[in-house]
């Protein structure tokens, strides 16, 4: 069985992509001690706000039509979907350009980051590069070019880090962080584009066929895009809200604390989720789903407790040592952030139960609930004018929201297992 799994092209593809994604994230983490000595918390705060805006726009920049690229049986139809995804992404980039021209000073004033007004011109470029890579990535997934995708993941992270370090050494401030990210997103596009012809894609995507495909896959913009947008807004809200309420320095400190904790925890969570995804369907049929959830939950809970204790006891001195004394306050933030992130860490792999048992609407409701909790948390922190209080409330929001999510998964698993065993 194990040998058969090793020889499976699908399994090798999963391992290749997971390893490359982990490698890329670890490259970014390893660079942080250098970047925090080249850039100030304020630079990171401006970068955090830009990244938040970019993250929300990118997740819907093709109205999620890129997800449909691997689905058609016909390669020709898939190439039409690729053209549609690229075209929508370009259109949204143009709209973004217009919005930046009109609103850039208002956005900069609103988020208390004056420098952002001149840097927002990079946002449409980021949409073009990031959205193009995203669509080409799904084209490569369709063609099972997993090795090619893996190479681009490492290339992106390496290019990003190198560009940001050069920008820091030159002393160009937040421009270096944002420019590095845009350059990193661009890296890999050429490799994924190899063998494609824009002219051929355009000729194949006739008006009649394109309209038919818009209709055929209309559920992606209708249902998946709003869900993805809610999730993205919920994820990125703290970065913007911290800048809005307390200024870019607070946003930069929060960004670092969240990044350092979230990346390694999410890598473990994603790995467990991939294993869970391969088991859930079988467990549903056998009535073993509830046991699977319990067996998964117990070791993850132990990891959460261990990480939380270490972070609470040692985060402040460790952040000061590794990232520089001016970043020690980020360690204070980390002490509270870890509480909420730990429960999010538990929910991540368990959430595949909702997907595999066609209970996705619960996931959408949950993330909408968490978004509301975060908004209430930032409003309360604004009234009390306390940065640490804001971090505490945001962490509590995650703890409550994802805690409810874990309970939903547990009860869902218990109900399905009971139905099979009855």
Task: Note down, in words, how this protein is organized.
- The protein is mainly α.
- It folds into two domains: 8-217, no CATH class; 223-422, no CATH class.
- Helices cover 87% and strands 0% of the residues.
- The chain is built from 18 helices and no strands.
- Helix 3 packs across helix 6 (122-142), helix 3 packs antiparallel against helix 12 and helix 6 packs parallel to helix 8 (174-186).
- It is globular.
- The two termini are 31 Å apart.
Structural class: mainly alpha
Order of helices and strands: HHHHHHHHHHHHHHHHHH
Ends: how far apart?
A: 31 Å
Helix percentage: over 70%
Give structural attributes.
422 residues; mainly alpha; 18 helices; 87% helix; globular
Please render the helix and strand layout as text.
Blueprint: H1 2-7, H2 9-38, H3 41-59, H4 75-110, H5 116-119, H6 122-142, H7 146-170, H8 174-186, H9 189-193, H10 198-204, H11 207-216, H12 219-246, H13 248-286, H14 289-323, H15 328-350, H16 352-356, H17 360-384, H18 387-421
Helix pairs in contact: 2-7, 2-13, 3-6, 3-8, 3-12, 3-13, 4-6, 4-10, 4-11, 6-8, 7-8, 12-13, 12-17, 13-14, 13-15, 13-18, 14-15, 14-18, 15-18, 17-18
Short summary of the structure?
The protein is mainly α and 422 residues long.
